[in-house]
Amino acid sequence: MHFDAIGRVPGDPILGLMEAYAQDPNPGKFDLGVGVYKDAQGLTPILESVKLAEQRLVNSQPTKTYIGGHGEPAFGKAISELVLGADSALIAAQCAGATQTPGGTGALRLSADFIAQCLPSRGVWLSNPTWPIHETIFAAAKVKVSHYPYVGSDNRLDVEGMLAVLSEAPKGDVVLLHACCHNPTGFDLSHDDWQRVLEVVRKRELLPLIDFAYQGFGDGLEQDAWSTRLFAAGLPELLITSSCSKNFGLYRDRTGALIVCAKTADKLIDIRSQLANIARNLWSTPPDHGAAVVATILGDPELKSLWAGEVEAMRLRIAQLRSGLVEALEPHGLRERFAHIGVQRGMFSYTGLSPAQVKNLRDHHSVYMVNSGRANVAGIDATRLDLLAEAIAAVCK
Ligand code: LMR
Fold first, then answer.
1. Which of 76, 170, 267, 384 has the CB geometry, 3.0–4.6 Å to 262, for a possible disulfide?
2. Global pTM?
3. Which CATH number fits domain 13-46+308-395: 3.40.50.1010, 3.90.1150.10, 1.10.10.10, 3.30.559.30?
4. What are the tens digits of pLDDT across the range 165-184?
């Protein structure tokens, strides 16, 4: 029959962990897998600012009819300002515009198809390592994927290696950069490093695609935008994918944007016509609810300040969990070995644990993390840091 020859493919390495964790009957289990923020109670609650905005929408939204291919203009404006700055010269000159997408992943897929169709023969350069879905999205769009070094087997940032490889990249290729809170490693470039990357990008005439999925989780909402704004000010053209999954907690509402910066307002209109055309074949028009929530929050000073406070609280909790875990490892003589956890930024830590140690943690201690050794620090239960440190020490013996 028609389906007889269809085989099975392995489940997603990150989302699959959610299922394995849910099925584990051990009440003392730890969920450090998928990148989802958890509070002190181990819950991923809906933000208060989001609840209030949703309430307003229930009362006032007049229709559920389709929105255009680029989504709601109020969302596009608000997210562009959040990313590029309210005083952005590019926004004022109408040289930057956002296309609403189903999450940051949708924005990445739209970028990949845009590159494949409008910039044919350009390859994309990904950090090694990177979020595994970067690899598969560009492969699915049939864009040639190459890698630049980022974190080596010594679990240290390799800026010199990165710059050396990018200096040899073919002119015109696309380079994907993580704006902050690098996924999966948590190692971010310094301001000086970013300046050097910008120089190479200029010299090789590369097109940066900045993946900005964790704004507010590193050093703060404005601070995390530093690198993106540096590139937007220093280059005539730029692609930025922005996600509202983490900083608005809108994971399942699939809310994100592809922001394009172009040389002229007229060129931006050309590009946007292509994006709407590509999006029509991917998802037709974007989902609205999450974007309407974001536009409501960012358009109201009171809601915006409530939201900014909630993001800051999440950021501070993650920072405390990082230092707390390093301290909890101290009695086991492992403080130095894991000191990098306190230096990394955002949800994730490349712990340096091997796949065998990760498996041991899962099988014998019910600690769930990605095989690569990536731990979602935001999933740690602060009251059980000692137990987590004990489990880590046990597999490090
Ligand atoms: C992660 O890396 O865990 C998150 O970005 C969630 C996902 O979709 O993989």
1. 267
2. 0.97
3. 3.90.1150.10
4. 999 999 999 999 999 999 99
